[in-house]
Amino acid sequence: MRFVHTADWQLGMTRRVLGARPPREAAGGLTGEAQARFAQARLDAVAALGAIADAQGAAFVLVCGDVFESNLVGPDVVARACEALGSFRTPVLLLPGNHDPADAACVLRRPDFARRCPPHVTVLDTPGVHEVAPGVEVVAAPWRSKHPLTDLVGEQLAALAPARPGTLRVLAGHGELDVLDPDDDEPARIRRDGVLAALADGRVHYVALGDRHSAWADAVDDRIRHPGTPEVTDFDEVDPGHVLVVDLDEHAARVAVETVGRWRFVRHDARLDADGDLDALDARLADLPDKERTAVRLALVGTLSLRQRSRLDDLLAAHGHAFAAVEVLEQHSDLATVPDDADLHDLDLHGFAADAASELFTAAGDTDDEARDALRLLHRLVARG
């Protein structure tokens, strides 16, 4: 039996990139235009994985939680999601996760979703065994609140008898395994030992999980899987942008990884002490492809003159218009600005302006941050005529 395992679509997500230098739009983060592209990319990834499922002849698509960013997404997000789901020919199973739990406000139960939901889409909001095709069962462990107090997957496994001969059984869950999240104070962690035992005695044949945005397979039994998010959402994700095509029998799972994501969140560390270092950073940013679908986070260390710092500001501002976002991560940067004699000379000012610049230069040398900022601004204004 073949099916597609995916999770964490988080449709309706907005992305804020904080701490940016230079400042972005007033709302912070992605520009309005880039935010619209980012939202569309998530829907495009859904359409792409649907096309893969159809082309591969999958029995169903299993979405293991967080279909939507929250239960409060607007009706426009719901409508566009249902349009994307409507393009599938393959049945789709949606499991509520921690972002869209099956509580009283669940978006997957809202009238606007129910009215538009295609008939081949099933919401697994009831825990337990669901027969989804002859000889195929999905054991659902949906989140019923934002803060469950038990291991929801463990509860379902404990209630199972071994599957009938000839029946394939897939567990659909959402959350971190205890080996990935060692927080002993988190009662909803999934106990890996219980999952391994259920696979060993035939209660289930594959454990499909969501919540972890990076792809992961268990080293002991690779039938325990996180597919990762189908479209990147942050800088710390490992190999996002994929879905899993699973060929399953009673003894093994053969898993193929298919790429559907197109965005990238790139981290770049640079040391800046000279004009050549700025040239290298400029070239590095210029060489990155697909800028309209790329957010860049920079960690910068080193020492620059005021002239060089002004050039850096202009460089980042110029590149920022081409990329979805460019930010300097302040907490991981240590970039000092130290004025030198050339800074004052390069201004080539006269009269009152020269006196003011000299006074600011002296104060900046005494580590007056406001004076340094003023001199940086003066350099930028002079450079721009």
From TrEMBL:
Pfam family for this entry, one: Metallophos
Signal peptide positions (record): none
Keywords for the protein's UniProt record, in alphabetical order: Exonuclease, Hydrolase, Nuclease
UniProt xrefs under Gene3D superfamilies: 3.60.21.10
Ranges of residues in domain Calcineurin-like phosphoesterase: 1-176
Database matches in SUPFAM superfamilies: Metallo-dependent phosphatases (SSF56300)
InterPro entries, per the entry: Calcineurin-like_PHP, DNA_Repair-Maintenance_Comp, Metallo-depent_PP-like, UCP033093_metalloPase
One GO molecular-function entry: exonuclease activity
Name of the protein in question: Exonuclease SbcCD subunit D
Organism: Actinomycetospora chlora
